Amino acid sequence: MELIFIRHGTTQGNLEKRFIGTLDVPLAPQGEELARAVGPTLPQVEHIYRSPLTRCLQTAMLLWPGVEMTAIEGLRETDFGPFEGKNHEELQDDPLYQAWIGQSDQLNFAAMPVGESAQQVVERVSGALEQLTADAAAHGYQRVGVVSHGGTMMGLLSKYGRPTRDYYGWMCPNCGGFRMELNQDTLELTVLEEYKG
Predict the structure, then answer these.
(1) 140: which residues sit within 8 A by CB, 6+ positions away?
(2) DSSP code string of 52-88
(3) What burial letters (b/e) apply to 142-162, b meaning 16+ CB within 10 Å?
C-alpha cells in the first residue's frame, strides 16, 4: 500500500513563526493557493486520512477534491503547552523557554519542558498509523493520502521512515511530504518520492 503523506498548507501562524500546535487555525490565503498548486502534481488517492484540525481538512479538500476522508485524532500536531500561539520574540524572556533553547537557539523537541514530549508524540502517531493501516487494509485501498503536521510527520518518520534519518531530517515545508510504500506488518514506510511543496 502507498501513502502520500503531506504537511498542511501555510497558516498565518506559520508565516509568523508561531507554535500553533493544537490551536485550530485555518489556512492563510497563501496556504490555500499553495495547496491548489500542489494538488495537481500529486498522485490520485482512494481515501484521505487527516488530522482533525481545520488546516488539514482545508488542505485535504484542496489537494484531492471530492475524495472521502477520515479524521484521526492521533494525527494532530504536537501540544506545545504554554508556548502555543507564541513565537520566539514573545517567548525570549520566558525562563522556561530559555531553559529549553539554551544558548544555541536550536530547538530540541525531545527536551521540551512543557506540553507533549517527542516520545509521547511518537507513541501517539504510531497508534494513528496502526489505526489508518487497519482501516485502509479493511477497505482494500492501494493508495491513500495522509494530511497532517510537521511535528507529527517528524515523529512518525523518525521511527518508521526508511531509509532512516534523524528527527529533523524529516522536516518538510508546507504542502511538502513523501510518497511511501507501507509495510503493513512492520509499519515501515519506505520513501519512493519526496515532495518539496
Answers:
(1) none
(2) SSHHHHHHHHHHSTT--EEE-GGGSPP--GGGTT-BH
(3) ebbbbbbbbbbbbbbbbbbbe
**How many distinct helices (H) and strands (E) make up the chain?**
7, 7
- The share of the chain scoring above pLDDT 90, in percent, equals 84
Domain 2-195 in CATH 3.40.50.1240? The answer is yes
User: Where are the domains positioned within the chain?
Assistant: 2-195
Reported as type and span, the H/E element at residue 133 is helix 118-139
Grid cell, residue 47, equals 481515501
Q: What is the pLDDT of residue 103?
A: 58
**146 closest CA partner among 72, 87, 197:** 72
Q: What grid cell was written down for 32?
A: 490555500
